[in-house]
């Protein structure tokens, strides 16, 4: 251990406490730390800034960085990205630098943070769950892609801050646990970006247009020290999001297991919410019940603010006020899902709050359910979501005519337009780490094994629609399931969530 010179000791006695602490941090702590590393356990055998197999044996197995995803799979994802980059430039020799930012901590008030959620692209590539971090991937001189070097810039360990905010992984934790090639303090980022900008024949990959969900200060750092200098010298700058989304949309076996669990949790929670429903209940109470049932089944939180819409409020597609009473005879539309170790579910069910479908409710509900099941049957390899959407509108139009909501004399084109009036949204979207996952992947792309999509037709007839029969006014119905595309038939991951009218009435005790 380093000793304090006696003259320094006398001088420190006359200094404020903070000055003494800074002295020890500068002159003593480093020496003690270096001494401890020779005999102390490895970085992964201490508390890090995220769960690990050492601290959370109930969540992670040895070799996993996040629950269910191994260090090897994260490394494979980075290789997959660099291979895609290589294909995009047809193997031309260049210096490639990929920069991906973490999220920053967001605050609802002074010193009151929102729950932290990591940027999905950053999390997908390395599994590091701390804020204020940056991942850089670069090709290695003299070697061909996808071989590359991975570097994490992370927060230093800081006993003062860790006292308040919890442990940090630090440089040693990032190297040993995450398995990147190099790690540096995030304070060294600006200098590193400047050095990258000086390289010849440089191709930068960075989402410079996208600022949502990334660290604001680091984004400005990248613009100032990398993007602007590279533009001025004529270097190529490419967006990475399209490539990332084309990789993320295809789920691995490990991801499918996590998705199954996320959807199963939400499905079971829906059944409990249905049982809990009763006339006069507040929408906020059903919201709370859904949140509770998901969390006690090990979900971290709800995947998005849920829609809990009673009566005519179901005709407001993104209604999230969730603060009204649901009266006897009304239906409740709930659109909700949970996040389980980074993977989201997204289910919608509509049911009568008193547990018994009226004739008019049953007629509309049956029409939507028939169309939804027919759309699920079409979730096959080579089909597109746009094609299923077109089919949905055609089938909804037929049922609108059958129910007397629109004229039977409409032409096919007029009927198609009428269907868009009563169902103004698409048939579905991709699902994964985000609820509206991989939006850069077009709905005109063909479905492939490993993709997960939502199928969610609806009919919405506001109380103000005087052209519709009076018995249907004020009813809004949507039914949404989560579908895994396979080599064979589509798999409905949310199949255990009740949706047939008999199932719902039985679970609510009115059948």
Structural features, described:
By secondary structure, the protein is of the alpha+beta class. It contains 15 helices and 21 strands. The strands form seven sheets. Strands 8-7-6-3-9-10 form a six-stranded mixed β-sheet, with helices on both faces. Strands 11-14-15 form a three-stranded antiparallel β-sheet. Helix 7 (189-197) runs parallel beside helix 8 (216-232). The N and C termini lie far apart (77 Å). The relative contact order is 0.09. The model is unreliable at 1-40 (pLDDT under 50).
Quick take:
The chain is α+β, with helices and mostly antiparallel strands and 511 residues long. Helices cover 38% and strands 16% of the residues. The strands form seven sheets. It has a six-stranded mixed β-sheet, with helices on both faces. Strands 11-14-15 form a three-stranded antiparallel β-sheet.
Please identify the structural class as seen in this structure: alpha+beta
Largest sheet: 6 strands, mixed
Rg result: 27 Å
> How would you describe the shape?
globular
Average pLDDT number: 91
Helix count equals 15
Pick out the low-confidence regions.
1-40
> How many DSSP-defined strands?
21
């Amino acid at each position: 251990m380093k000793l304090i010179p006696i003259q320094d000791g006398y001088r420190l006695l006359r200094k404020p406490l903070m000055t003494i602490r800074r002295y020890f941090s500068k002159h003593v702590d480093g020496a003690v730390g270096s001494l401890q590393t020779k005999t102390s356990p490895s970085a992964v055998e201490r508390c890090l800034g995220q769960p690990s197999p050492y601290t959370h044996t109930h969540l992670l197995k040895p070799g996993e960085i996040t629950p269910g995803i191994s260090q090897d799979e994260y490394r494979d994802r980075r290789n997959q990205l660099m291979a895609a980059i290589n294909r995009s430039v047809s193997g031309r020799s260049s210096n490639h630098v990929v920069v991906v930012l973490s999220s920053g901590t967001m605050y609802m008030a002074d010193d009151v943070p929102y729950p932290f959620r990591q940027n999905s692209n950053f999390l997908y590539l390395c599994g590091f769950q701390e804020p204020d971090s940056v991942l850089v991937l670069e090709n290695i001189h003299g070697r061909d892609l996808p071989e590359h070097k991975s570097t994490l810039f992370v927060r230093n360990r800081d006993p003062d801050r860790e006292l308040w905010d919890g442990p940090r992984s630090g440089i040693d934790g990032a190297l040993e646990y995450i398995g990147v090639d190099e790690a540096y303090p995030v304070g060294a980022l600006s200098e590193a970006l400047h050095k990258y900008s000086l390289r010849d024949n440089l191709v930068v990959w960075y989402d410079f247009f996208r600022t949502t969900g990334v660290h604001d200060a680091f984004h400005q750092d990248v613009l100032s020290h990398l993007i602007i200098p590279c533009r001025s010298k004529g270097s190529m700058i490419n967006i990475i999001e399209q490539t990332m989304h084309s990789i993320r949309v295809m789920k691995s076996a490990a991801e499918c297991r996590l998705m199954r669990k996320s959807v199963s949790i939400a499905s079971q929670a829906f059944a409990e919410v249905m049982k809990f429903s009763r006339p006069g209940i507040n929408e906020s109470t059903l919201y709370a019940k859904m949140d509770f049932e998901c969390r006690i089944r090990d979900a971290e939180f709800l995947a998005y603010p849920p829609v809990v819409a009673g009566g005519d409020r179901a005709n407001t597609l993104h209604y999230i006020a969730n603060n009204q009473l649901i009266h006897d005879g009304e239906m409740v539309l709930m659109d909700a899902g949970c996040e389980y170790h980074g993977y989201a579910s997204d289910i919608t069910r509509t049911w009568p709050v008193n547990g018994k479908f009226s004739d008019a409710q049953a007629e509309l509900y049956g029409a939507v359910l028939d169309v939804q099941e027919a759309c699920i049957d079409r979730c096959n390899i080579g089909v597109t979501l746009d094609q299923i959407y077109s089919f949905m509108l055609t089938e909804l139009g037929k049922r609108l005519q059958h129910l007397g909501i629109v004229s039977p004399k409409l032409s096919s084109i007029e009927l198609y337009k009428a269907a868009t009036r009563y169902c103004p949204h698409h048939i579905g979207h991709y699902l994964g780490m985000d609820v509206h996952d991989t939006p850069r992947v077009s709905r005109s792309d063909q479905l492939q094994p490993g993709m997960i999509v939502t199928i969610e037709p609806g009919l919405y007839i506001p109380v103000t629609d005087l052209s519709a029969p009076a018995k249907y006014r004020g009813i809004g119905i949507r039914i949404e399931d989560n579908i895994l595309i396979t080599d064979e038939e589509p798999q409905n991951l949310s199949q255990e969530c009740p949706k047939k009218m008999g199932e719902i009435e039985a679970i609510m005790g009115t059948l």
